[in-house]
Design a protein that fits this description.
The complex is a heterodimer. By secondary structure, chain A is an alpha+beta fold. Chain A is 57% helix and 19% strand. Chain B has three domains: 81 residues, no CATH class; 50 residues, SH3 type barrels; 103 residues, Alpha-Beta Plaits. By secondary structure, chain B is of the alpha+beta class. The chains are: A alpha+beta, B alpha+beta. At the A-B interface, helix 2, helix 4, helix 5, strand 5 and helix 8 of A face helix 3, helix 4, strand 4, strand 7 and helix 9 of B.
Chain lengths: 297, 315
C-alpha cells in the first residue's frame, strides 16, 4: 500500500519534500558556517550526515510513495532497486574511495592537524582533515587540497615529532637530537669544546622548559638542502654559524647544518627546530635568503 | 566540540525518543529500534571517553570504538529493513558495491604489509633504500612502513609502494667465520662433539651487517696516487667507531672528476646513521684543505672566532 493515493500526488509531495530537505541542508550549512567555535572537521561530518539522511528520506518517499512502484511484483522491484543501487555505487565510487581512505587515515593516523609535512611534493602545515581531503597551507601561503586516496597512496614526510614522553627531559633530548648531533657532525668541529657543548645542552633545556610551559606535545624539525662552493668554504661555514646564532631568538633554538655529500659543490643540509609552525613559515624563507647571500658573496 | 553543544544535542535526542516512545503511531519493533539507536548514540561519547582514559593504546581504542559503531550500525540497518524492504536492499547493494570497489586500496596495503612482515625481506632496524628514501626502518604496520631518514625526518611509505618497487638492502645477513679446529684436536674423540656444536652454531648464526654505499665525487685536484693515503688516514680514525674498516672504489670519471663509492660497514646501522656525516666532513677537510681554508687566516684576524660562536677556539 503506497503512502500517497496517486502518482501525481506522490510526485508533488516528493518534490516538496526534496526541496525542503535541500533548503534544510543549505540552512544547516549556513548556520554551521556562522558558528566559528565548531571545528571544520565536525562541521563537515554533521553536513555529511545531514545529506545522507536527506537522501535516504527522499529515497524512502519515492519507493514507498508512488503507487506505480507498488504495483511492480516484489521480485522485480528488488532486482530493479539492487541494479539501480549498484549503478549508483559505481558512479559514486570516487567519493567512496576518498571516504574509505579518510577512515583509514583516521585509524592509522599518519598525520595530524598542525603537522608540517611533505605530501606529493607539497610542503606545508596540515590545516584540516575532512572526510574527502587533507588541506595543507604551504610556505607560500597557498592552500593545497589533497584527496584522501592520494594521501594514503603517497609518501608522507613528517617534519613534526609527537613526543611520547614530554615530562622527561632525557627522552625529549633523545627525540630532539638528529643522528648527526649524536655523531658530532657539525662542520666547524674544530671550534667544538666543553663550552659549546654546555651551550647546546642549555639550548635543549630552554626548549624543553618552553615546551613544558606551553604544555605542547609536538615540535617541528624542518630540513632543507643548500649547495656551497669549495673555495673559501671554511669562511662561509663560519658566517653561516653566525647566522644560525642570530636566528636562535627567532626560532627558539639555533638552526644547525652538516655535510651530507659533495660533487662539483658541497651539499649542506640545514635543520631548523621550532615549536610553532607559524614561526617556521615566517622566518625560514628569510633564513634561506640570508644563507644564499653568504654562499654567493 | 564544547560540552554545552553535546548537552543540547543529547536533550534534543532525548526529547525525540520520548516522543517516539509515547506518541508515535509506528509499530512496536520500529519504536524499540529507534530507542536502542538513540541510547547507543547517547552512550557513544561517554564510552569513548572512558576507553580513552582506560586504554592507552590508540589501536585498541580504535578497535573498541569500531566494534561499538558496527553494533550500532547493525541496529540502524535492522530499522531500515523494518521500515522498507526495498530501501534496505537498495542501501545494502549500494554500500557493498561502493565500498568493495574501494577496499582494493586498503587490501593492497594490508596484503603487501603482511607479505613484507612474513617474507623476512627486511625487518625493523635495517638500513634500506626504497622510492628514493634512505633510512632505518622504524615500524612496519599494516598500511605504512615508517623509515627514519639520515637527517632524522620520519617518512611513511605505503606498503604497496615498497612491495612494487626496488628495495636496496644495505643491511643483510652474513655468515660468521669461526676459527677452524686443528687437525690433531679434531682427531681426538672428545672434540667430535665440539665440532658438531660448531656446525650447528654456523648454521643457526644470524649475524647482520650493514654495508652502506655512499657515492661522492672527487675533484681533479687530488692526485690519484695520493687518494689511498688520504682516505686511509680518515678510515683509520673511523674504523674503531664503525667497528669495521671503511673502504672505497673508483666508480667512474666525468668532467675531470672521479666518482668514488665509499663502503661504510658496521654491525649496527644506527652507528652509520650517526657518524656518516662526520665521516664525510673529515674526509672533505682532508681532501681539500687548501680550497676550503682559502681566506680563513685573513678572516680569522678580522673576526675573532671567540666572538662569533660565543665559545670555541680561543684567539
Amino acid at each position: 500500500m503506497a503512502i500517497f493515493a496517486s502518482d501525481l500526488e506522490a510526485l508533488i509531495y516528493a518534490s516538496i519534500i526534496g526541496l525542503s530537505l535541500y533548503i534544510g541542508c543549505r540552512l544547516l550549512a549556513y548556520l554551521l558556517d556562522k558558528i566559528k567555535r565548531i571545528p571544520m572537521m565536525r562541521k563537515n561530518k554533521i553536513l555529511f550526515a545531514a545529506r545522507i539522511v536527506s537522501i535516504l528520506v527522499l529515497f524512502y518517499f519515492i519507493i514507498e510513495g508512488f503507487p506505480i512502484l507498488q504495483s511492480i511484483p516484489s521480485q522485480y522491484s528488488v532486482v530493479i532497486t539492487g541494479a539501480v543501487s549498484i549503478a549508483l555505487a559505481f558512479a559514486a565510487s570516487g567519493i567512496f574511495s576518498n571516504l574509505v581512505a579518510g577512515i583509514l587515515i583516521w585509524l592509522v593516523d599518519p598525520i595530524d592537524i598542525g603537522d608540517v609535512v611533505k605530501i606529493k611534493e607539497h610542503k606545508g602545515v596540515v590545516k584540516s582533515m575532512t572526510l574527502n581531503k587533507v588541506i595543507l597551507e604551504t610556505f607560500d601561503g597557498v592552500i593545497v587540497e589533497i584527496t584522501n586516496s592520494d594521501v594514503v597512496s603517497s609518501l608522507i614526510l613528517n617534519y613534526t615529532t609527537n613526543l611520547k614522553y614530554r615530562k622527561r627531559f632525557i627522552r625529549f633530548k633523545r627525540q630532539l637530537r638528529a643522528p648527526q648531533d649524536i655523531g658530532n657532525a657539525q662542520v666547524d668541529i674544530n671550534l667544538f669544546d666543553e663550552e659549546v657543548r654546555k651551550k647546546q645542552e642549555e639550548d635543549i633545556r630552554n626548549l624543553f622548559s618552553e615546551l613544558s610551559k606551553n604544555q605542547q606535545d609536538t615540535f617541528h624539525a624542518y630540513t632543507f638542502k643548500m649547495q656551497v662552493p669549495y673555495k673559501g668554504f671554511r669562511v662561509k661555514v663560519d658566517k653561516m654559524r653566525k647566522l644560525c646564532e642570530a636566528y636562535r631568538e627567532k626560532f627558539g633554538y639555533p638552526p644547525n647544518f652538516h655535510i651530507f655529500g659533495y660533487s662539483y659543490e658541497i651539499f649542506l643540509k640545514f635543520r631548523i627546530v621550532c615549536l610553532d609552525w607559524r614561526v617556521l613559515f615566517k622566518y625560514q624563507p628569510q633564513f634561506a635568503k640570508d644563507l644564499y647571500r653568504i654562499i654567493l658573496e | 566540540m564544547k560540552k554545552r553543544y553535546y548537552a543540547l544535542i543529547y536533550l534534543i535526542i532525548i526529547a525525540i525518543l520520548f516522543w517516539v516512545f509515547y506518541l508515535s503511531p509506528w509499530e512496536q519493533i520500529i519504536i524499540d529500534l529507534i530507542i536502542i539507536i538513540g541510547i547507543f548514540y547517547i552512550l557513544r561519547k561517554p564510552i569513548s571517553s572512558l576507553f580513552n582514559y582506560l586504554v592507552k593504546k590508540r589501536l585498541y581504542r580504535a578497535i573498541i570504538l569500531t566494534a561499538y559503531n558496527i553494533i550500532g550500525g547493525f541496529f540502524i540497518f535492522w530499522l531500515l529493513l523494518e521500515i522498507s524492504d526495498e530501501l534496505f536492499i537498495a542501501i545494502i547493494s549500494f554500500l557493498i558495491t561502493a565500498v568493495s570497489l574501494n577496499f582494493r586500496l586498503i587490501l593492497n596495503n594490508i596484503t603487501s604489509g603482511t607479505i613484507l612482515l612474513t617474507a623476512g625481506q627486511f625487518e625493523v632496524g635495517d638500513l634500506i633504500e626504497t622510492n628514493g628514501i634512505q633510512g632505518i626502518i622504524q615500524e612496519i604496520n599494516l598500511n605504512y612502513t615508517k623509515i627514519r631518514e639520515f637527517d632524522g625526518v620520519m617518512v611513511q611509505i605505503p606498503n604497496s609502494e615498497i612491495y612494487d618497487s626496488t628495495v636496496v638492502k644495505f643491511t643483510h645477513e652474513k655468515f660468521k667465520i669461526f676459527e677452524p679446529l686443528k687437525k690433531e684436536e679434531f682427531k681426538k674423540k672428545k672434540y667430535y662433539k665440539d665440532y658438531l656444536k660448531l656446525i650447528n652454531k654456523i648454521l643457526s648464526s644470524n649475524i647482520k651487517t650493514t654495508v652502506y654505499v655512499k657515492s661522492v665525487e672527487i675533484l681533479g685536484v687530488i692526485p690519484p696516487e695520493n687518494l689511498d693515503i688520504i682516505l686511509s688516514e680518515v678510515f683509520d680514525i673511523y674504523e674503531p667507531i664503525f667497528g669495521l674498516r671503511p673502504n672505497f672504489a673508483i666508480d667512474t670519471t666525468t668532467f675531470g672528476r672521479a666518482r668514488i663509492n665509499l663502503y661504510i660497514k658496521s654491525d649496527k646501522p644506527s652507528i652509520i646513521l650517526n657518524y656518516l656525516d662526520a665521516f664525510l666532513r673529515d674526509l672533505l677537510f682532508k681532501l681539500y684543505p687548501d680550497e676550503l681554508f682559502e681566506g680563513w687566516e685573513k678572516y680569522k684576524k678580522k673576526n675573532p672566532i671567540k666572538n662569533l660562536s660565543e665559545g670555541g677556539e680561543k684567539s
